[in-house]
Amino acid sequence: MKVEEVNGITVIVPELRQIDMNNSPKFRKDLEECLKDRTRVILNLGNVNFMDSTGLGIIVAALRNMNQIKGRMILCEASKAVKVLFEMVRLSHITNVYKDLDEALEAMKN
Question: Do residues 105 and 7 make contact, with C-beta atoms less than 8 angstroms apart?
């Protein structure tokens, strides 16, 4: 995972092309490590072309954990296939998914 700070906001970029049951334990561990002690996070999914329910579950758990600590995590740059998965489970009721990083950074300012 690539992690960078932009104006006090943590941007996390998974370097995986797909997140599925084969690599989800590593994805979960890496994401949890990246989220430690952070309260303003953008998860940029620009590299991810495919995600199954295990990857989705990890993201939903991370969103819940951020809410519990009064943090905020939003998503951006989801591929068409990943957006379809998000729409099927109505992820937009939990968090926003922005078109690109600039839009997500602007939204995080508010």
Answer: yes
Output the CA–CA distances (angstroms, integers) from residue 10 to 89, 92, 93, in the order listed: 26, 21, 22
> Per-residue pLDDT tens for 8-65?
999 999 999 999 999 999 999 999 999 999 999 999 999 999 999 999 999 999 999 9
> Which pTM value belongs to this model?
0.93
Q: Virtual CA dihedral for 3, 5, 9, 15, nearest 10 degrees?
A: -20
CATH of the domain at 32: 3.30.750.24
Q: What is the DSSP letter of 90?
A: T
Nearest Cα to Cα of residue 16 among 5, 32, 30, 4: 30
Q: How many domains does the chain have?
A: 1
Q: What is the extent of the structural domain holding 48? A: 2-109
Residues listed for the chain: 110
Amino acid making up residue 22: N
Given the DSSP bridges, would you call strands 97-98 and 72-76 parallel, antiparallel or unpaired?
Answer: parallel
More confident residue, 95 or 2: 2
| Owner of token pair 């561990």 | 29
